[in-house]
Amino acid sequence: MIVATAENVPGHRIDKVLGIVWGTIVRSRHLGHDLLAMLKSIKGGDIRSYENLTDRARADALAKLELNAKSQGADAVIGVRLGTTALMPGMVEVYAYGTAVKLKKA
Fold first, then answer.
1. Number of alpha helices (DSSP H) and beta strands (DSSP E) in the chain
2. How many structural domains are present in the chain?
3. For labelling alongside 92, which of 7, 16, 31, 57 has CA 20 to 30 A away?
4. Model confidence over 36-74: pLDDT tens digits?
């Protein structure tokens, strides 16, 4: 499965557009991580626990996007975008979306 932010795949042409596909994940923060992050924010610097949390959430959203595309018989997902939404304090949605397509060799 090809997953790309580009609108086309080099060496291929789009044979059929299957439609929009997405993957979404909702994550909440851990109270212990929040306390450590507040302490870290006083002196400044990277907050690795949150970086790891968001990296995992992005990867999970992309994995769900790929599963959604495969279930529709797609060869690729093009025009992929990622976003986040704060649902409530301490809870965030990470989503990925794009266009599922069937490809032919050019």
1. 2, 4
2. 1
3. 7
4. 655 556 666 676 777 788 899 999 999 999 999 999 999
